[in-house]
From TrEMBL:
Organism: Gasterosteus aculeatus aculeatus
InterPro entries in UniProt: Ets_dom, ETS_fam, Pointed_dom, SAM/pointed_sf, WH-like_DNA-bd_sf, WH_DNA-bd_sf
Localization per Swiss-Prot or TrEMBL: Nucleus
Record protein name field: ETS homologous factor
Membership in a protein family: Belongs to the ETS family.
DNA sequence: CCAAAGTTTCCTGCTT
DNA sequence: GAAGCAGGAAACTTTG
């Protein structure tokens, strides 16, 4: 059995997520993935690349931002590099989600241990924040690992302009966050992450994939379930549905054929292939995103977005 | 309240 | 015979 590097991470839910705990390695993995454990190192400057990704995913999950709208590969950096990014860098790297991410990391840098949940932001009533960000889609038991809610953005947000004369006031950041979230949350997204995105994220995160799914043909997007029941349990945990089975999960997968998110792979059990409407799984997507367009202070390229199909 | 999207659940029949 | 696949049908949850 492969032991995930997150064995040391503890979660109050790890021992209770499944009545039988039939997949301890999965449970361990889950403790970091969907139980929303914040990276334990309170100083973001000390985060590993993986912790940066974890932070990224959690900020987007919590604020119900469509994960596919932010190129994770633009954040292929450790915490030190992340903390060096300016407000404009975040805009370039994450587009409309940039203000939210910038605010989150700014809070973490200053507070050392808290993270931002937009539902707790003290926004002016006249801003007409119609979306309910306090309504997170995770069990309340998960929330206590986050620590206290964050104070208002204004006193601590202190963006670093990328160039002289580039002013970023807390007011404009707050406006950006408002606009960003208005755009993001309007997208119809019934229950958070989609199944195919969940599968894709497992495949793209080998560090956290303890032999659940593997690529059969990386270039063609062909993959195979190694532990179908474990993946189903994981998906069920994600959706707060303990009765999820591979049979049900596979039915949902088959619905993707019609939408060309998946293509049929005949004659091979547990094998699927990403279709033309699946985004963000190609290696070429990632390498293209990293190619520098112009000289910047940091080694990563900002500004490109994942292609829409 | 309604419609739509995206599953979830159940089912029958077929294949490996 | 078990496990998986295929797809119809209905129900369900969430969002706009």
């Amino acid at each position: 059995m492969s032991i995930s590097p997150f064995t040391t991470l503890e979660s109050p839910l790890t021992s209770s997520w499944s009545p039988t705990n039939s997949y301890p390695d999965v449970a361990t993995w889950m403790s970091g993935y969907s139980n929303r454990l914040w990276p334990r190192d309170p100083k973001p400057q000390l985060w590993s690349k993986f912790q940066v990704w974890e932070w990224l995913q959690q900020v987007m999950d919590i604020n119900q931002i469509d994960a596919s709208s932010v190129p994770f590969q633009n954040f292929d950096m450790d915490g030190h590099q992340l903390c060096g990014l300016s407000y404009q860098d975040f805009i370039h790297a994450a587009g409309s989600a940039g203000p939210v991410l910038f605010h989150s990391i700014t809070e973490l840098k200053w507070s050392g241990q808290c993270h931002v949940e937009l539902g707790h932001l003290e926004l002016k009533p006249e801003l007409d924040f119609s979306c309910s960000f306090s309504e997170v889609s995770y069990p309340p038991a998960d929330l206590d690992v986050y620590g206290p809610s964050i104070p208002p953005i204004a006193p601590v947000a202190s963006p670093t302009p990328s160039s002289p004369g580039e002013e970023c006031t807390s007011y404009t950041i707050q406006q950006d966050i408002k606009r960003s979230l208005s755009r993001q949350v309007k997208k119809h997204n019934p229950r958070g992450i989609h199944l195919w995105e969940f599968i894709r994220d497992i495949l793209l995160n080998p560090e956290r994939n303890p032999g659940l799914i593997k690529w059969e043909d990386r270039a063609e997007g062909v993959f195979r379930f190694l532990k179908s029941d474990a993946v189903a349990q994981l998906w069920g945990k994600k959706k707060n549905n303990i009765s999820m089975t591979y049979e049900k999960l596979s039915r949902a997968m088959r619905y993707y054929y019609k939408r060309e998110i998946l293509e049929r792979v005949d004659g091979r059990r547990l094998v699927y292939k990403f279709g033309r409407n699946a985004r963000g799984w190609r290696e070429s997507d990632m390498t293209r995103k990293r190619a520098p367009r112009r000289r910047r202070r940091h080694i990563f390229q900002f500004g490109s977005r994942l292609e829409e199909p």
